[in-house]
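Data card: per-record layout.
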Amino acid sequence: DLNGRVKGKDDPVEIQTWVLKDGKYEWLYMEENHTAEGDQEKRQRSPITFVDVAAGMDHSLAVDNQGNVWAAGNNDRGQLGITGVSSVPYFIKVLDVETTTSLGGDKIVAVSAGDGYSLALTDSGKVYAWGANDVGQLGLHYTSDSVATPTKLPLPNINGISAGTDHSLFTTFDGYVYAVGKNTNGKMGTGLKVDEESATPVFLSELSGIVKTSAGDEHSLALSYGGRVSSWGSNEDGRLGYELRGGATSSAAMAVIPSLSSVMDVDAGTDHNLAVDYNGKLYSWGNDRNGQLG
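The structure for this 294-residue chain is written out next.
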C-alpha cells in the first residue's frame, strides 16, 4: 500500500523490462541498468498505468497510457513482437511510440491477442499485426509462417479489432466489417467458400451499423448500434444462439440472435459467449461442459 489506501488499488504495476545484450539479459529501469546474475531476480516498481489488455492462447498484451504495447508469454510464432527468445515470463515493451517511426506519432489504444498472433489499433484507426500468419490471419495481403515484428496493415479507418484462433475481424469507424484468415465453418461470412483462406481483408456486405465484433474459435459475433447481436460460423454447442434450419451445424450467413436486445457489450470465447445489456443483465450461451456459462 503506497498511499495509505486500499492495498493494491492505487499501487503502481510491477514491471520488469529486459533487453538481450552480450548474451545475457540486462534489466533496464529508469536511468539505472541492472544485470541478472545466476538465479537472482531483482524487482522494482514502475509507475505505469495500463488502459487496455488482451489474453491470447498463451501470451498476453497490455497498452499503457502513453500508447506503448507490452507483451509476455509464449513467443514461438513471434506473437510477442520480438525476436531471439522463445518465451518471456514478464512484460516487456514491444511497441514504443517514441522509437517506432512507422507509427508517425500515433499511439496504440487497443490490443487483441489470438492463437499465436497479435493485433494493435492506433488512435488514428491504423492496425498493426504480428505473429502467426500461416492462413493470412494478420491481414497483410500475404501468408507466411510468422511475422516477427509489428507490421502495419493496408487497412485504414478501423475502430475495432478482434483476433480469434485463426481469423480476425476489423470494424470501421462507419460501422462496416472486414474479415481475414481461415473460413472454417463459414466464420468469416459469405464472401468466401467454406474452408477457404484469405490474407486480404474481405468486406462483409451483410453487416452495417456495427460497433463491435468478436472472433471466437469457429464462430463470430457482431454488435450493432441498435443493441442487436448477429452470429455466424459453427453452431456446435449452440454457440450461435439460435437453431439452424434443416439440422445444419454451421452457417456463413449472419443472423440476429432473436432472444437478445439492448445489448451494450458482447464477447466470444473459444466455444461460448457472453453479453451484457443496458440494464446490467448478463447472458451466456454455448459450451458449458466446464461450467463456463456460470
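Known properties of this structure: The CA atoms of residues 17 and 48 lie 12 Å apart. Confidence is low (pLDDT under 50) at residues 1-14, 29-35.

See the next section for split statistics.
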